[in-house]
Automatic annotation (TrEMBL):
Keywords: Metal-binding, NAD, Oxidoreductase. It comes from the Eukaryota. One of its GO terms (molecular function) is metal ion binding. The keyword Lipoprotein does not apply. Gene3D superfamilies: 3.40.50.1970, Dehydroquinate synthase-like - alpha domain. Residues 8-154 form the Alcohol dehydrogenase iron-type/glycerol dehydrogenase GldA domain. GO terms for cellular component: cytosol. This is Alcohol dehydrogenase iron-type/glycerol dehydrogenase GldA domain-containing protein.
Length: 374
């Protein structure tokens, strides 16, 4: 099996880097379709459009509908055709960026992603998660190339709510946990092929950076400061995690996240990263990792305020039928859970989801953790 490494063509991160967007994007095209939701248009989109227009780049403004669905991608594609765009720019969160990828791929155009939060690793990847119009994961789309340009303005990101940074940390902390399992099982990466040493090394580095700097970065974000710690965590959340998952592979954590999307209820108020956080601990339970490793993750997650009990993810009163529905989706044919170095059944997943809740409650008892410590 061939080894495969994927990455964006250029990644640029820094404070106020959006002010240089015209110089960077102008090398790709002069007729840009800019996709952002209504909120992001107000906080950054209009400024970006003005910056581009001053660089003689014509801008077609498009409001993102909220879900990265087939219908939404097709709608935006038609608007891009009418505007004769030669570059697509996605500005905002993961679903907006994934939709922009879908449009650029369908039309064979250059693609720039500009995240306004560090909440996911979507900006760098060549994959879109496709949802139904109701928000359930439907499928994945894999593209022949990654974004041509990723622009990450850390001043914009530090002005976003801290919850988004924490969600990105949770998503990124799954990267090495999953890549390590893929390495052990000699599994495949999401686009096919075997993981590279480089991809796995980057995934491992993401974990190291996040354990070293997450708490400092969170405090910087709370105070809207761009510090070295914040820069490090933004890079880990975005670039290291993005390359790490795509070139290192996914396993149980994200499959369990996908299972959660099949359940109705308040769990849908959680972000992608918050649901992945529970999935990550669940994978560690499935792997029967020793208590010191579980404690390491649980301790950091609790300090960051991430959901790690069934009550936290609104499943405290879930029925066995609910849990098995989650597990059946998580273990469906083609899911990344089959990259684990051992066979995982739906019953194994149910036991591990419940076991995670038990382990976390035990941790809180052993460490005298109180709810007000969050």
């Amino acid at each position: 099996m061939e080894k495969v490494f994927l990455s964006p063509s250029r990644y640029v991160q820094g404070k106020d880097v959006i002010k240089k967007a015209g110089a960077y994007i102008g090398k790709l095209g002069n007729r840009a379709l800019v996709l952002a939701d209504k909120f992001v248009w107000n906080i950054a989109g209009n400024d970006l459009a003005n910056i581009l227009e001053r660089s003689d780049i014509r801008v077609e403004k498009v409001a993102f509908g909220g879900e990265c669905s087939k219908m939404e991608i097709d709608r935006i594609t038609e608007l891009s055709k009418k505007a004769c765009s030669n570059v697509v720019i996605g500005l905002g969160g993961g679903k907006t960026l994934d939709a922009a990828k879908g449009v650029a791929n369908q039309l064979g155009l250059f693609l720039t992603t500009i995240p306004t939060t560090a909440s996911t690793d979507a900006p760098t990847s060549a994959v879109s998660v496709i949802y139904t119009d109701k928000g359930a994961v439907e499928s994945y789309r894999f593209y022949n190339k990654n974004p041509d340009l990723v622009l990450v303005d850390t001043r914009i990101i530090t002005n976003a709510p801290p919850r988004f940074l924490v969600s990105g940390i949770a998503d990124a902390l799954a990267t090495w946990v999953e890549a390590r399992a893929v390495k052990q099982s000699h599994g495949q990466i999401v686009s096919g092929g075997a993981p590279t040493i480089a991809g796995q090394a980057i995934a491992e580095k993401a974990e190291q950076v996040l354990f070293e700097y997450s708490l400092q970065a969170l405090e910087a974000n709370k105070n809207k400061l761009v510090t070295s710690a914040l820069e490090s965590v933004v890079e880990a959340n975005t670039l290291l995690s993005g390359i790490g998952f795509e070139s290192g592979g996914l396993a149980a954590a994200h499959a369990i996240h996908n299972g959660f999307t099949a359940i109705d209820g308040n769990i849908h108020h959680l972000t992608h990263g918050e649901k992945v956080a529970y999935g990550t601990i669940t994978q560690l339970v499935l792997e029967n990792k020793p208590l010191n490793e579980l404690d390491r993750y649980i301790g950091l997650y609790l300090q960051l305020g991430l959901p790690v009990t069934l009550k936290d993810i609104y499943l405290e009163n879930a029925t066995d039928e609910d849990f098995y529905k989650i597990a059946e989706i998580a273990t469906a044919e083609g899911e990344s859970i089959h990259n684990m170095p051992f066979k995982v059944t739906s019953d194994d997943v149910v036991q591990a989801i419940k076991g995670t809740d038990a382990y976390v409650k035990n941790y809180k008892k052993r460490h005298g953790w109180r709810e007000e410590q969050k």
